[in-house]
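can u do me a favor
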C-alpha cells in the first residue's frame, strides 16, 4: 500500500516563548517532530512531506533526508498548509496520513488501527477524534443520526449547542490522497478566522457523497498538542511513563520509575537494574545484568554486560563487560574502558583507552592516554596532559604499576611491567621492567621534633610574659 505522510509544522509556536522553534523542543530527549516522523517511518510511508514555515531551516537541518520539505511562507491555515504539498504529492495514489509536528504522542499502533478502520469502511477520509472533559479551543465533531461524521466546526464558529459537544478533532487524519487534494481546491477562507481550514474538507467530501468516518481513540493523550511549556511537560511525563513501561516489560527493573528518566532512543538489556535518580540520554546502549545508579547521568555511551555504575556521570564513553565505575566518577568523551576495569571514587577519564583489568581506584585524572591491561594507577596518580598549549599523550604499557600521587608528564611512556615509585614526577620514558623514582631523597634528623617543640614553646611563653 502506498502511504504518503504529511506533517504540518509551519506554525510559529509563540506560546512556547522560546528561541527554539516549537517542533524542535524535545520530549524525552527527542524533538517533537522527530517523534512524529519516526511514527511515519514505522508506517513505512512511501513519501513523507513536512510543511515548514517558521524555523524552516532548523527543522530541515534536524530531519535531513528523512523527509521532503515544502515551505508555507504565510500561515493562512491548516488547509492552506496542506495545499503547499500538492505540487509534490498531489497526484500520488494511495493513503495520506496527516499529522502535526507538535503532537508527539500519537502511536504507530493507533494509526495502524485507524488505517484498517478507514479501509474496512471504504472511507475517503477518517478523522481521529477523542472525548475531552475540557474541549476548549478545539474543533468539534458533528455526527448525523446514524453517527456518521458530517462536519467539523471550529470553536470560534460554533453555535452554543455545538460548543457543548465533547468529541474533538485531534487534527490527525487518513485520506484518500487524490480525494484530499480535489476537495482542498474547494476550501475557502470564509470563516471567523479568515483561514483556509483543513477541516472544511470533511464537509466537502460528505457533500460529494463520500464516506467520512471518525475514529475515536480511547486514549486521548495521543492527541495532546503541545502549544506551551505546560503541555510540553505533560507530554514529557506521558512519554516517560510509556518508555519506562516498555523497558520494564522487556525485563529491565526500574526501582523507582517516577525518578528514572530514559531517553526515547536508549536501549537496555534484560535483568539490568536501574536505581533511582538515574538519567539515560541520547543513543546510550546498556547491556544485560548491569546495575546503573543511583543518581547516574549517562549520555551517548555504550555499556557492556554486568557493569556497575554508581553515582557517576558518563558522556560518549565505552565500557567493557564486568567493569565497575564509581561512586563519583566522571567519564568524558573518548573514555574507552576494557573488561573488568575498576574505576573508583573521584576519578576522571577523558579521551583515554584503558585495557582489561586496569584499576584506577581513587582520585586520579587520566586524560589523553593509552593504558595497557592490568595496569594499576595508585591513589592520586595523574596524567599531566596539558602544558597550556598542547594536549600530549601518556602511554602506560601492560602490567605496569604507577604508585600513588605520581605525575606522568606527557608526552611520556611507562614500559611494560615497569614500576613507578609513589610521589614521582615522571618526565622521561621508563623502560620495561625498570623501577623509576623521581623525588627528593628523605633525610631524618634524630630527636629534632622535641627540639623544635621546645623552641616554639619558649617563644610562646616569652610572648605571654610581655
Ligand atoms: C486545528 C483544527 C482543529 C483541531 C486542532 C487540534 C483546523 C481548521 N482546525 O486547530 O479542528 O481541533 O487543530 O489541535 O484545522 N499549521 C501550519 N500552517 C498553518 C496553520 C497551522 O503548519 O497555516 C500547523 C501548526 O504548526 C500546528 C497545526 O498545523 O502544528 C495545527 O495548527 P493550530 O493553529 O494549532 O490548529 P487550529 O487551527 O487551532
Ligand atoms: Ca495546536
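np, heres the sequence
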Amino acid at each position: 500500500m502506498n502511504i504518503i505522510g504529511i506533517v504540518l509544522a509551519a506554525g510559529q509556536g509563540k506560546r512556547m516563548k522560546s528561541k527554539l522553534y516549537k517542533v524542535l523542543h524535545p520530549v524525552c530527549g527527542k524533538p517533537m517532530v522527530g517523534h512524529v516522523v519516526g511514527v511515519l517511518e514505522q508506517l513505512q510511508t512511501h513519501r513523507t512531506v513536512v510543511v515548514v514555515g517558521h524555523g524552516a531551516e532548523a527543522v530541515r537541518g534536524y530531519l535531513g533526508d528523512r523527509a521532503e520539505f515544502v515551505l508555507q511562507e504565510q500561515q493562512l491555515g491548516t488547509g492552506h498548509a496542506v495545499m503547499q504539498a500538492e505540487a509534490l504529492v498531489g497526484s500520488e495514489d494511495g493513503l495520506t496520513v496527516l499529522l502535526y509536528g507538535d503532537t508527539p504522542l500519537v502511536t504507530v499502533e493507533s494509526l495502524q488501527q485507524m488505517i484498517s478502520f478507514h479501509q474496512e469502511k471504504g472511507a475517503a477520509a477518517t478523522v481521529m477524534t477523542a472525548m475531552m472533559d475540557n474541549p476548549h479551543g478545539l474543533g468539534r465533531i458533528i455526527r448525523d443520526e446514524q453517527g456518521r461524521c458530517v462536519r467539523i466546526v471550529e470553536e470560534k464558529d460554533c453555535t452554543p449547542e455545538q460548543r457543548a459537544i465533547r468529541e474533538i478533532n485531534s487534527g490527525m487524519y487518513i485520506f484518500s490522497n487524490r480525494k484530499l487534494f480535489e476537495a482542498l481546491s474547494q476550501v475557502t477562507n470564509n470563516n471567523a478566522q479568515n483561514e483556509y481550514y483543513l477541516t472544511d474538507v470533511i464537509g466537502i467530501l460528505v457533500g460529494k457523497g463520500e464516506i467520512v468516518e471518525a475514529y475515536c481513540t480511547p486514549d486521548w493523550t495521543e492527541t495532546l498538542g503541545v502549544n506551551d511549556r505546560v503541555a510540553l511537560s505533560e507530554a514529557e511525563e506521558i512519554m516517560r511513563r510509556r518508555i519506562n513501561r516498555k523497558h520494564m516489560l522487556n525485563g529491565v527493573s526500574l526501582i523507582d520509575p517516577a525518578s528514572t528518566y530514559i531517553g526515547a532512543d536508549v536501549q537496555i538489556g534484560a535483568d539490568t537494574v536501574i536505581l533511582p535518580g538515574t538519567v539515560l540520554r541520547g543513543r546510550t546502549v546498556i547491556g544485560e545484568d548491569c546495575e546503573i545508579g543511583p543518581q547516574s547521568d549517562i549520555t551517548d555511551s555504550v555499556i557492556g554486560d554486568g557493569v556497575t555504575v554508581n553515582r557517576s556521570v558518563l558522556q560518549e564513553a565505552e565500557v567493557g563487560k564486568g567493569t565497575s565505575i564509581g561512586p563519583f566518577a566522571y567519564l568524558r568523551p573518548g573514555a574507552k574502558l576494557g573488561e573488568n576495569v575498576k574505576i573508583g571514587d573521584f576519578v576522571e577519564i577523558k579521551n583515554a583507552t584503558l585495557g582489561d583489568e586496569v584499576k584506577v581506584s581513587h582520585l586520579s585524572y587520566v586524560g589523553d592516554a593509552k593504558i595497557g591491561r592490568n595496569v594499576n594507577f595508585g591513589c592520586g596518580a595523574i596524567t599531566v596532559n596539558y602544558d597550556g598549549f598542547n594536549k600530549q599523550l601518556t602511554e602506560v604499557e601492560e602490567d605496569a604499576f604507577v604508585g600513588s600521587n605520581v605525575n606522568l608528564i606527557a608526552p611520556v611512556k611507562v614500559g611494560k611491567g615497569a614500576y613507578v615509585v609513589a610521589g614521582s614526577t615522571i618526565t622521561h620514558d621508563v623502560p620495561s621492567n625498570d623501577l623509576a623514582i623521581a623525588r627528593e631523597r628523605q633525610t631524618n634528623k634524630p630527636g629534632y621534633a622535641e627540639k623544635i617543640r621546645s623552641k616554639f614553646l619558649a617563644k610562646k611563653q616569652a610572648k605571654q610574659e610581655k
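The chain has two domains: 3-223, 252-436. hope that helps!!
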